[in-house]
Amino acid sequence: AQKVTQAQTEISVVEKEDVTLDCVYETRDTTYYLFWYKQPPSGELVFLIRRNSFDEQNEISGRYSWNFQKSTSSFNFTITASQVVDSAVYFCALSEGDTDKLIFGTGTRLQVFP
Amino acid sequence: DAGVTQSPTHLIKTRGQQVTLRCSPKSGHDTVSWYQQALGQGPQFIFQYYEEEERQRGNFPDRFSGHQFPNYSSELNVNALLLGDSALYLCASSPGTGGYTFGSGTRLTVV
């Protein structure tokens, strides 16, 4: 069965701290995609990254970085030097190779205080 | 370039009524998916439309139905509304190769 677990319900940090959001997934497929989305109070889901199951290279984009480890079925997201504008709910999601359906975790609410 | 547009933004309905939500996909996108997001939860997949046909469906009852028009826009219909249908309904469009773009959603409240 497909499942995405985000064990951290809420994280609070002070601006400029680094923060890591955890994501653990379950799938029986060998071909799948992993995503991270940001949901600000406006409600729109903002796409951050898509990674396929055959590409375990870590990725860095500005202050954002992602650590994909198939051995532990994890796809963690780190924000370096957090800013108040990073405050939002962050969702990890999974889609299997033969479907476009996204399976979302329950989200992690990040609050960054000045 | 407009992204995904959903209307209305907010809606209040009475239990037992019917509701129609609308979605205009991003330019160049031909696939539309609908998600239901209850308060404090992650979005749940309802169904996906491509070439005016329902291509995939999640675990939602038949009270939830949809339609896609030739211009790729889509509607989500929910009949016999229940209190539990209160949620944010999100529309996502894609060009068929992943890369979903989400709208801001319609907040439905059933009273």
**Binned strand content of chain B:** over 45%
Termini gap of chain B: 37 Å
For the residues shown, what is the average pLDDT of chain A?
93
Sheet with the most strands, sense and barrel status of chain B? 7 strands, mixed
Q: Any idea what the shape of chain B is?
A: globular
Radius of gyration of chain A equals: 14 Å
Number of helices of chain B: 0
Rg of chain B (C-alpha, Å): 13 Å
In percent terms, what proportion of residues of chain A is strand? Answer: over 45%
- How many E-type strands of chain B? 11
Polypeptide structure, described:
The complex is a heterodimer of chains A (114) and B (111). Chain A is an all-beta fold and 114 residues long. Chain A is 0% helix and 54% strand. The N and C termini of chain A lie far apart (41 Å). Chain A has strands at 3-5, 10-14, 19-21, 24-26, 32-39, 46-52, 59-61, 64-69, 74-79, 88-96, 103-104, 108-113. In chain B, strands 2, 4, 5, 6, 9, 10 and 11 form a 7-stranded mixed sheet that branches.
